[in-house]
């Protein structure tokens, strides 16, 4: 793991631990437990007899608070629902691309046609702003003209670092930091299309997509190759937190619900030991929640004894 400080805690020190739905967390943990490494073997084997979810977690895991000197920050992400077409026309003019072979160009080069004519277009969208934000979310559901739905998900990035357009707008004095949200940024972009195009190009990071074959009732595919779960999956920085690990999320907001979540995803903007992006669901309502979600608190990892001993 990256440079960090590790502190052992007890379950009695977790605010709200007794009130959580441990069975719901255990169900999500089972979904990716078979992908965990050898240090997790005892925990995975014990799943066969785990009838009391709370007892399972308290018996087989050690609480470790991992910090890197930066405060905790929790944001939200979601699966957008967009309209699109498998063929371009006057309405659908903005493609999502499959992963190309060879050198990976910048966002500006791609938007200027670097990938055109190579048959890499997966689907065409009508709104360049929504297409840009789909790159940030990493997955989505696209409704086609015939009523069908295409599920798309992250395939790869072009290797350039992610740049936050929200931060650039704040730094430029275009949006008050107290008003920042995904919807506020989208509104600004649509009101200033020429400036918005240049702003989006400043984020040279570009995401390539693939078609997902998952049931309609399942969430999008996370970094572990399995569906994520609303309210129980978080995206984390793998430099500090292990994919598949249970992580206790405790928020500072009044009346906030503390929950045991599972680290099953990641994202370009998720950097740091105490940084998590919470998957909140699919569609416009989830998008509204995710777009303005920003809370402080603390993260506490649940780790097998063998793994924790190597850190402390």
- For the record, what CATH class of the largest domain applies? Mainly Beta
Kindly name the structural category.
alpha+beta
CATH architecture field of the largest domain: Beta Barrel
Element-by-element helix/strand order:
EHHHEEEEHEHEEHHHEEEEEHEEH
CATH level 4 superfamily of the largest domain: RlpA-like domain
Distance between the first and last residues' Cα: 12 Å
Structure description:
With 312 residues, the protein is an alpha+beta fold. It folds into two domains: 5-76 and 224-309, RlpA-like domain (Barwin-like endoglucanases); 80-211, Barwin-like endoglucanases (Ribosomal Protein L25, Chain P, Beta Barrel). The chain is 26% helix and 27% strand. The protein has helices at residues 22-33, 41-45, 53-60, 107-111, 128-137, 165-171, 182-191, 193-202, 284-291, 305-309, and strands at residues 5-9, 62-67, 73-79, 81-85, 94-97, 121-125, 139-143, 149-157, 207-211, 233-235, 246-251, 259-265, 275-282, 294-295, 297-303. The strands form two sheets. It has a nine-stranded mixed β-sheet with strand order 1-2-15-11-12-10-13-3-14. A hairpin with a 5-residue loop joins strand 7 and strand 8. Helix 7 crosses helix 8. The longest helix has 12 residues, at 22-33. The chain starts with a strand and ends with a helix. The mean pLDDT is 93.
Please tag this protein with its features.
312 residues, alpha+beta, 15 strands, 27% strand, Ribosomal Protein L25, Chain P, Barwin-like endoglucanases, 2 domains, nine-stranded mixed β-sheet
């Amino acid at each position: 793991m990256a440079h960090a400080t590790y502190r052992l805690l007890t379950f009695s020190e977790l605010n709200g631990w007794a009130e959580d739905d441990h069975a719901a967390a255990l169900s999500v943990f089972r979904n990716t437990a078979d992908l965990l490494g050898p240090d997790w073997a005892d925990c995975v084997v014990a799943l066969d007899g785990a009838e009391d979810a709370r007892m399972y977690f308290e018996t087989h895991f050690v609480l470790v608070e991992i910090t890197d000197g930066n405060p905790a920050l929790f944001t939200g992400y979601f699966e957008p629902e967009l309209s699109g077409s498998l063929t371009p026309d006057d309405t659908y003019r903005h493609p999502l691309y499959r992963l190309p072979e060879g050198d990976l160009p910048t966002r500006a080069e791609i938007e200027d046609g670097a990938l055109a004519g190579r048959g890499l277009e997966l689907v065409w969208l009508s709104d360049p702003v929504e297409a840009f934000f789909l790159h940030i979310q990493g997955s989505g559901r696209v409704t086609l003209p015939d009523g069908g739905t295409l599920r798309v998900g992250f395939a790869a990035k072009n290797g350039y670092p992610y740049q936050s357009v929200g931060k650039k707008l704040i730094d430029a004095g275009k949006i008050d930091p107290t008003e920042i949200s995904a919807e506020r940024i989208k509104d600004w972009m649509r009101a200033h299309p020429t400036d918005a195009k240049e702003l989006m190009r400043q984020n040279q990071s570009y995401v390539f997509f693939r078609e997902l074959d998952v049931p309609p009732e399942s969430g999008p595919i996370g970094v572990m190759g399995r569906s994520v779960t609303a309210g129980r999956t978080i995206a984390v920085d793998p430099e500090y937190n292990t994919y598949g690990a249970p992580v206790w999320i405790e928020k500072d907001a009044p009346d906030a619900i503390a929950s045991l979540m599972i680290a099953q995803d990641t994202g370009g903007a998720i950097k740091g030991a105490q940084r998590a992006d919470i998957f909140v669901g699919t569609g416009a309502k989830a998008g509204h929640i995710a777009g303005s979600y920003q809370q402080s608190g603390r993260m506490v990892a649940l780790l097998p004894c063998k793994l924790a001993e190597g850190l402390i």
